[in-house]
Amino acid sequence: MKRLICISFMLFSLKAFSQTSVSPLECIAPFYHGVASGDPQTDRVIIWTRVTPQDFNETLTVNYKVATDNSFSNIVFQGSLQTDASKDYTIKVDVTGLSPNTFYFYEFEHDGSFSAVGRTKTLPVGDVENVRFAVVSCANLEAGYFNVYSAVNERNDVDAVLMLGDYIYEYASGGFSENSNIDRVWEPEEEIIDLAEYRLRYSSYHMDNALRKLHQNYPWICVWDDHESANNSFANGAQNHSSDEGDWLTRKENAKQAFFEWLPIRPKAPENTQIFRSFKWGNLANLIMLDTRLEGRDEQVQANDPLINDSTRTILGNEQYNWLKDELSVEEQQWKILGNQVMMGEITAFGTPINTDGWDGYPAERKRIYNHLSQNSIDDFVVVTGDIHTSWAINLKNENTPVGVEFVAPSVTSPGLPIDVGGILVLQNPHLKYVELTKKGFVILDVSAAKVQGDWYYVTTIDQQNSANACQKSYYSTAGNNSLFSTNTPSTGHGPFTIPLAEPCSRFANINENEVSSIIGVYPNPSNQLLYIQTNGKLNSDRNWKLLSSQGSEIWIKPVSMTTDQNNIVVHVFDVSMFADGQYELIDLAGKSKSRITFIKK
User: What mean pLDDT do residues 516-539 have?
Assistant: First the structure.
């Protein structure tokens, strides 16, 4: 049974607006979870936000505007949408009719309150000289500060952020690589299984200041890996899912629904949760995003299992495999860039594959892809990968024939190895050009007609909020070569944008540092046992709360104890199991009108 405790984020390094690493900003209320954009095309882009209601059973109308300037004097798209509990009060708009290769600004409004202004950019057409991606993956909120996100944001020179998976983690609090040097806690504290729990985990992540800013300033292109559902997942199960946790397919659908609600991804069609899709930067690059987790993957086997070489085993599934072959065969774009969750290159120790959760566990299907590249003379094949928390530069070979290159990004915070023994692996795998197994960071992938280059940037720490970082290794592949070469010069590409980064608050904000507590989330609603209530935590003493019936009659008034210290988020856990089924209203008597919720017990 879930423990009845007050869960709080203990945060350090107080920022402007009383902002710490994970906390809500009152200057964007009720859009506490920020804004985001994603899946850009030449004429459209997804914009996203989440609005926090006063009554968690009501339907809200949210207005939105898109303009070519951040003062919104030239509005090109506007409208209204409704949202409710069925969408967890998220808003997602596919903004159409836009111009190619253009910066746009967007904001949301509800009941006279405005979100922060977001900045995004559409894809170009025709001859494109350069495109730059920031490649990130594996962000464990409890393992450290998201300094990688801050470092990428401050560059102001990437066209899109490629999130290759493990945006969240499903474990219970403290269940995976908790960092004793910090005090960052995700919600809920239990392993997430049902829809409300997945939603609450995303809500916790979107309170992170660095994550919120990076979403605000760049379009993201996201795919899930395993931890958005459960560790080492495949189509019909997962290593971290047991029979006492319910039906796997139900859990998988819960995970998919929350992912599509909380991230700016464009569904292929209503109710379609397939994530393999492509993005074309003029005639320069075709970015092909895969799902090597949930779409069609067969269950993993060990390296010594005879099934590992079964020609029928798949990591993609038939539909996605055939789609991938078609995308690779498109001749319009020079570079074929595969956004991929797990390592494609072969890695062995003493002749034995060491990671059969990657493509090494599905060698027959990898061979079919390599054969397709070789037989059709498809050059300039590039793979970018996450998942493994470490850094790799790999020459991909079809037996002895080079067919492409792979850049593997390190994690944002998730652990690698305590010491770097990559040199041993390089000695046994001569197609490995670079291995680094300890550092946290990101890859800048710079693409031009002449070459593609990967630059590994590492942050100096994840134990304090500090975005200091440096490029420590660079490799490139020239057009038609399909092999990697080292360079001491990081790429510069098109350089920083002249468009400034967006401000963290609403452009109409009047920041009041004495703002009292406000409620920013309630999960699950309806509830039959425990009700989790997130507040902004600006409290320094016990408070009285009032509970009312649906008829407005008072049931009780009593204080609720909290641990506050330096906290900016407090989660109160109420046991509602003893209440009769029906609707109730809970009011923080020291709060304002927004410090009240309506919830249903059933």
Answer: 73
